[in-house]
Specification:
binds zinc ion, globular, alpha+beta
Length: 114
């Protein structure tokens, strides 16, 4: 997608602190972190939200989640714990319509989330 912010980050047309990348997945630190560790893990492929994820993309979503797990290990938060969040549409607070998994950690999380 030409105008999508996260597609541009994946293509490195817009600067972000990339913390992981492979052929299908990119991760970068969130510009407005909500925890000591706050990264976003995205497929390079433009999928607007979970609502547009098709059955053929299950493996790709698995790769995104595995990359998030590896990143939690690399950031040293995997033992204490971390949270993976996928906001979907307005009531969940989705603001960027390119599917992304938030990796949050480095502090105690509250439940239920707000
Ligand atoms: P969501 O509200 O789930 O759609 O999350 C979008 C996230 O993208 C927010 O946490 C923003 O802080 C983050 N964000 C927006 N623009 C950028 C950017 N240029 N680089 C890194 N993170 C960004
Ligand atoms: Zn996109």
């Amino acid at each position: 997608m030409e105008d999508c912010l996260f597609c541009k980050i994946a293509r490195q047309e817009i600067k972000a602190r990339l913390v992981y990348e492979d052929e299908e997945v990119v991760a970068f630190d969130d510009i407005n972190p909500q925890a000591p560790v706050h990264s976003l893990v995205i497929p390079r492929k433009h999928i607007p939200s979970m609502n547009q994820l098709s059955e053929g993309e299950e493996r790709l979503l698995g790769k995104v989640l595995t990359a998030a797990r590896k990143l939690a290990e690399a950031k040293g938060i995997h033992q204490k714990g971390y949270r993976l969040v996928v906001n979907t549409n307005a009531e969940a607070g989705q603001t960027v319509f390119h599917l992304h998994v938030h990796l949050l950690g480095g502090r105690a999380m509250h439940w239920p989330p707000g």
